[in-house]
Specification:
With 344 residues, the chain is an alpha+beta fold. The protein folds into two domains: 7-114, Phosphorylase Kinase, domain 1 (2-Layer Sandwich); 119-343, Aminoglycoside phosphotransferase (APH), C-terminal lobe (Aminoglycoside 3'-phosphotransferase, Chain: A, domain 2), CATH 3.90.1200.10. The chain is 41% helix and 14% strand. It is built from eleven helices and eleven strands. It has helices at 10-22, 76-84, 102-105, 133-152, 172-187, 193-204, 246-252, 270-281, 287-313, 321-326, 329-343, and strands spanning 27-28, 32-33, 41-48, 56-63, 95-99, 109-113, 118-119, 213-215, 224-227, 230-234, 241-243. The strands form three sheets. Strands 1, 2, 3, 4, 5 and 6 form a six-stranded antiparallel sheet that branches. A three-stranded antiparallel sheet has the order 7-9-10, covered by helices on one side. α4 (133-152) packs parallel to α8, α5 runs antiparallel to α6 (193-204) and α6 (193-204) runs parallel beside α11 (329-343). The longest helix has 27 residues, at 287-313. The chain is globular.
């Protein structure tokens, strides 16, 4: 049985929770939900009195409802990753309070700081004009450099080390494939022979990672904020894990994020992207590994679409974009097959 989140009751619940955490009362204004996403819910929460005074601060609340894609959720991976990146060259919001106790706000949750900026949309018509050249280049440089900085973080010394669970450069790829195999087994409403074939191939051709790194899991245009040509925050850490850094390269370079262009995430020329990233990260990109992770990314995208279709069929979401996502399962699997055939 799913538990629907009642937005109208959140403010008093938040006020009560924050009062317990801070040791004094606060006032919570109108809580507003952002109309984005199919997974975690995102809210703007104005809070007066966090510092004990009359100052009002705007927080961001993320809730992981039990009817979202890939539920049940835990706030811990996001919080661990964001705290691990504080003070690094990766711009992230500051993580504050969190809990996986659904009795508090109705679902696992986390609070973080609000960062100024707007998201650049990656999926546009091929006929729409691209970004102004100088502006695009500046964003691309920051986009590449932040990813390289993420993959350089000495995570063994950070809170995210709690998520290691025996991962090594030798087993990182297989652990990843097995995770998405389990998601497909859970969400698929019918057999997908192409997916089963792809999983077998991916397991049989796992590359060795150059290092184990923090992997964002959904690194692309659309998941960062920018203001006046400066990337102010990398967002959406719900798929974060430890793994092969090539995974983020494969995902960012998927054709669906090129917006009808030939640019990685509609920002960077591929050769320049890989050359600059290699220079910044400290190892040479393996294009064979990038193509492997492009294939795995397409399987991952197909799994996400399977989850969307099932959530719609089970009445978890009424958004008509969900069945539309389901219609793209076969397309993703065909692209995965073509990508694998290009590697063989």
């Amino acid at each position: 049985m799913t538990t629907l989140i009642d937005d109208t009751t959140l403010a008093p619940k938040i006020a009560g929770y924050l009062a317990q955490q801070l040791g004094h009362a606060v006032q919570v204004g109108t809580v507003k939900r952002f109309p984005v996403g199919f997974s975690w819910l995102t809210y703007s929460v104005p809070v007066t009195g966090i510092d004990g005074g009359a100052k009002t601060e705007e927080l961001i609340l993320r809730l992981g409802p039990d009817y979202g894609l890939f539920a049940p959720y835990s706030a811990k991976p996001q919080v661990l990753s964001m705290r691990s990146l504080e003070g690094s060259a990766v711009p992230v919001p500051r993580a504050f309070w969190s809990s996986d106790d659904a009795s508090i706000l109705g679902a696992p949750f986390m609070f973080c700081s609000k960062v100024s900026g707007d998201a650049v949309v990656p999926w546009v018509s091929a006929n729409e004009p691209g970004l102004e050249e100088g502006y695009r280049r500046r964003l691309a440089e920051q986009f590449i450099d932040a990813l390289a900085a993420l993959h350089r973080v000495p995570w063994q010394e950070k809170p995210i080390a709690e998520m290691a669970h025996g991962i090594t450069v030798d087993n990182a790829a297989r652990i990843n494939v097995e995770y998405w195999e389990a998601q497909i087994a859970r969400w698929a409403m019918r057999p997908w022979p192409q997916a089963e074939w792809g999983i077998r191939w991916l397991k049989a051709h796992c590359p060795q990672a150059p290092r184990v790194a923090i992997v964002h899991g959904d690194y692309r245009t659309g998941n960062f904020l920018e203001q006046d040509g400066r990337i102010t925050a990398i967002l959406d850490w719900e798929l974060v894990h430890l793994g092969d850094p090539h995974e983020d390269l494969g995902w960012a370079s998927l054709p669906m994020y090129m917006g009808g262009s030939k640019l990685i995430s509609r920002l960077a020329e591929p050769d320049w992207f890989y050359a600059r990233y290699s220079e910044k990260v400290g190892f040479q990109v393996s294009m064979e590994s990038v193509r492997y992770y492009q294939a795995l990314s397409l399987l991952k995208l197909a799994a996400t679409h399977m989850a969307a279709a099932r959530c719609f069929e089970e009445g978890r979401f009424s958004d008509m974009r969900m069945p539309a996502m389901g219609s793209q399962i076969a397309t993703c699997l065909r692209q995965m097959e073509k990508t694998i055939e290009g590697i063989r």
